[in-house]
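Audit log entry. Action: structure prediction of a protein-small molecule complex. Ligand: zinc ion. The ligand was supplied as SMILES and no pocket hint was given, so placement is left entirely to the predictor. Protonation state taken as written. Sequence taken verbatim from the request; no trimming, no tag removal. Recorded inputs:
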Amino acid sequence: MIKVIKTADVPDSLKNEKFQKHLIRLKNNKAKVSGGYYGAKDVRESLKNEFNNKCAYCETKEFSPEIEHYRPQSKYEYLSYEWTNLIPVCRSCNRSKSNKFPIENKITIKNLEKLGTALNILNEKEKPYILNPEIDSPKEHFSFNTLGEIYSKTKKGKITICVCNLNDETLIYRRKKEYDNILKIIEMAKLNNTNIGKKTLNIIKEVVNKNKKKEHEYSLFWQNISLDLENLIDNN
Ligand SMILES: [Zn+2]
């Protein structure tokens, strides 16, 4: 998980006339919350764009994400269409998190609705134990080792890892695989003590730098382990 602050406006499907009419029907109990609105094509595309086509929780590349309600619909129905409550996730994270949402301070639904839809106010009052990619700084809560495993630095980090299953075997394997490939190339290049070897090491440095960027899959993992690789490249 990395910090992502949405820059796009609320998509049309969550504010147009058709949607406003639906809200009125919803208020009068003549309609039910529908994925046709929060899962509309423009909402999905905008979320994909904001999150660099990655799952908001595990950072796996995901071009057909599921639309997740950070605060689950089952407990926070009034936030079902709230733009700041919608994030794109992979199927695996969505299944793990499901409708779990541990918080420090319980607030009644009536009082919650009074607080409004601003996530920062809700966060302040409820103190959720699940990291919010739009509010928290995940790098302050997580660290990684070169085996691809994620560790928590805080209680919030620990609960998020557990609830979203961020140490899932497949995730560990995928994080480690690319690291191992790069490690092999470095070792081979160092054995080949010629200009070609030196050029290869420079290319690898550029690759590692690129992997640390927000567009790359598992960028926080790369930010954590890049120093080890850079030291290995520089120490002859
Ligand atoms: Zn995921």
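Audit: result stored. The beta strands are 66-69, 86-89, 142-144, 150-152. DSSP finds ten helices and four strands in the chain.
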